[in-house]
Design goal:
Length: about 525
């Protein structure tokens, strides 16, 4: 068999199908951020309790992360296109229900449904790319576009949400997804191939339940630590999640047709890509949140201006993810991943040396640099994860990739978020706050946002003094956290260099194997 037959090139239909696949990915990342803008509006309309508000904000991410493994494996069994279209229909229906929710309880339930439906999108789209693009170089290009679509969604989500909230009610932010999903339902059956593993057994419901509870418990504990610090409840939740996760892994080793094939982890490229992806999201997620706060609360930019400056990061992701396929033609993937992490460390190094007086240019330079470096890491890590797995396990491999992203991001927010809070409180406690009542100073130590609220209520120069001290404390904490992130990125680069030595670009599947399993 010649190379042309072994690695058939994609036709125009596959590339147009890739554009269709990018639509739900764009929406996937939009829905993670757009609700934050609507919180004040829905609070006034639905009047949720503080506990209900936490669940409204968090339940989407919780259910999404917990359902990824099950949905990825389910797509391998019933058909990846079928699962994608079912998820798209459910996502559209849940979006309408969320938009017209009449109570906090209804909104929590619909957000949970959105999370489960959203969990079908990323694994299904990524595993379809595995089967649509059999040539290794074309698959890397396609995955680069797939990664870029998430960056675009993250960039335009706050902008579209802000525009909608200026003219319509809070529920309008949910309706953005309805026409996108309708378009996917119309074009998907025509442009996307069907694929499923004909030899797969029945879905093990106990394994699905164990994976859901394990991931939910760990993510819940990490988020609560990030928000309120270490406590018995979040630590207990994480411990329970780890124990249930261990039981889940033991069960997979005993099943003839497991939810996750543990043999995937024996491949050096798969394990190395998984570690690199997790470490990249560890430093990346926290940075994106903290930079948004720095732009608004330290540099004093409006939310719209901060959002516009944040677009630079998305542009860097788009450029980087589309440069990777050209780079790996000449450079081994291990060197590219390592170089990307070193570049990300350099970006964090710039953030650690910010000058508050003229800090915007350096902040944007650091933001763009770290985003460019992480785009290399994410694109190649995902490519190796799905490229190393056999075609019949592409859905499960895609789900593992997305779960590692969610866990890495949550862990980064919990750890680095705790660092910045601790340093902020220490620095503010050392600042002289003449004229500021002790109760006001204590309230300001919880966060920079709280300090801004407290300062606004103080008369005379005391409010200005408190605000200036709080900004300085946050700036110091930000620089410390950036330095730690740079060190973590360098350590991850060293680990990637060791784990990926000798690993080449994963081979594309032979056409005979692909034709035996493609159904449409």
């Amino acid at each position: 068999m010649n190379s042309a037959n072994a690695n058939p090139k994609a036709a125009a239909r596959e590339w147009i199908g890739l554009a269709v696949i990018a639509l739900p990915c764009l929406l996937y990342s939009m829905d993670l951020t757009v609700l934050n803008l609507a919180v004040p509006h829905l609070s006034a309309a639905l009047r949720p309790t503080s506990a209900q508000m936490l669940w409204i904000v968090d339940i989407y991410g919780f259910m999404l992360a917990g359902s990824l493994i099950t949905m990825g494996t389910l797509g391998d069994r019933i058909g990846r296109r079928k699962l994608l279209l079912i998820g798209a229909a459910c996502f559209g229906i849940a979006s309408v229900l969320a938009a017209f929710s009449t109570s906090a309880e209804m909104l929590i339930a619909t957000r949970a449904l959105l999370g489960v439906a959203g969990a079908t999108l990323a694994p299904s789209t990524l595993s379809l790319i595995r089967n649509m693009f059999l040539d290794a170089e074309e698959r890397t290009v396609a995955i680069g576009i797939w990664v870029a679509s998430f960056a675009v969604g993250g960039a335009i989500g706050p902008l579209i949400g802000g525009l909608l909230l200026e003219h319509y009610w809070w529920g309008s932010v949910f309706l953005v997804g309805v026409p996108v999903m309708a378009l996917l339902l119309v074009l998907g059956p025509w442009l996307l191939p069907e694929y499923r593993d004909e030899k797969a057994g029945r879905l093990d419901l106990l394994s699905a339940a164990l994976s859901l509870v394990a991931v939910l418990a760990v993510i819940y504990g990490l988020k609560r630590i990030a928000e309120a610090g270490v406590g018995a409840l979040p630590v207990g939740a994480m411990a329970a999640g780890v124990a249930i996760g261990f039981a889940f892994i033991r069960r997979q080793g005993k099943l003839a047709d497991p939810l996750i094939d543990l043999r995937l982890f024996r491949a050096p490229a798969f394990s190395a890509a998984l570690v690199s992806n997790t470490m990249g999201f560890f430093v990346g997620f926290a940075a994106f949140l903290l930079i948004a706060q720095y732009l608004q609360l330290v540099l004093g930019l409006s939310p719209l201006k901060a959002g516009l400056w944040s677009v630079s990061s998305s542009l860097a992701f788009i450029v980087g993810s589309n440069l990777v396929p050209r780079i790996v033609r000449r450079v081994r993937p291990g060197f590219v991943v390592t170089g990307g992490l070193v570049l990300a460390a350099a970006g964090f190094g710039l953030l650690a040396r910010l000058d508050r007086e003229n800090g915007l240019p350096m902040l944007i330079a650091g933001y763009v640099t770290l985003s460019l470096g992480l785009s290399f890491v994410f694109t190649l890590a995902v490519d190796m994860l799905v490229g190393t797995a056999p075609p019949e396990r592409a859905g499960a491999a895609s789900a593992i990739s997305e779960t590692s992203s969610e866990l890495g991001g949550a862990l980064g927010i919990a750890v680095l978020g705790s660092v910045i809070v601790g340093v902020y409180r220490h620095e503010l406690a050392q600042s002289p706050l003449a004229g500021v009542p002790p109760a006001a100073a204590e309230a300001a130590r919880s966060s920079l946002g709280a300090a801004a609220d407290v300062a606004a209520g103080l008369a005379g120069p005391a409010g200005d003094r408190l605000m200036e001290a709080s900004r300085e404390a946050f700036a110091q904490a930000f620089e410390t956290t950036a330095s730690i992130s740079a060190a973590v990125a360098l350590a991850a680069a060293l680990l990637a260099a060791i784990m990926l030595r000798g690993v080449g670009t994963p081979p594309a599947p032979a056409s005979a194997q692909a034709e035996a399993t493609l159904l449409g």
